[in-house]
Amino acid sequence: APTFVHHSADTLPEFLVDNVTVKVLAGTAWDKTSPVSFPWPIIYVALEATSESEIVLPGDLALERAVYVVTGEAKVADTMIGVGRMAVLEPNVDVPVVMAPGTKAVICGGAPMESPRKINWNFVSSDAEKIAAARADWTAAIQAGGTARFPAVPGDEDEWIPLPS
What Rg do the C-alpha atoms of the chain give, in angstroms? Predict the structure, then answer.
């Protein structure tokens, strides 16, 4: 079942790799493991360069992985990636990333899912019936002002976002 557990920032591994600050938000990277648990192998790693720096992303971080640039720009392999862009990386290959000064990026990825996922608005599942049930439960929550599955947000009980058509 879904859960929420808070981990303060100071519990997350943070270290330098080739002049890049690395913070492991989830999963394991460079032999450092985040305390954040997840039901299958995942990586979510923040990178920050204060000066131009090259970091090599190991091919064994995850079978599926990508780099997303938050601020600045980065050269991933031989391709420049700007803000709001993601580079999907080839599996099992070490990839050099040259980060411009002030660049922040994240590495995300993990093990491939066992079956295709369906996405409908904020609902994701491999089972279309579960998505249909979640849509019905959301509509009921709007009409009731909250339900056990989708309770009202404390301090914001009057605002509900309707399902898109």
Answer: 19
In the block, tokens 């009057």 appear at 158
* Residue boundaries of the structural domains of the chain: 9-110, 114-158
Report the 10 Å Cβ neighbour count for 107.
25
Q: Are 142 and 79 in contact (CB under 8 A)?
A: no
CATH of domain 9-110: 2.60.120.10
Cβ proximity of 66 and 43 under 8 Å:
no
- CA distances to 17, 49, 74, 165 from 22, rounded to whole Å, are 7, 9, 15, 41
Q: What is the mean pLDDT of the chain?
A: 93
For residue 22, the Cα-to-chain-centroid distance in whole angstroms is 15
How much is the pTM?
A: 0.75
Q: How distant is the alpha carbon of residue 17 from its chain centre?
A: 21
pLDDT at 98: 98
Tokens of 24: 């492991």
Rounded to whole angstroms, how far apart are CA atoms 132 and 123?
9
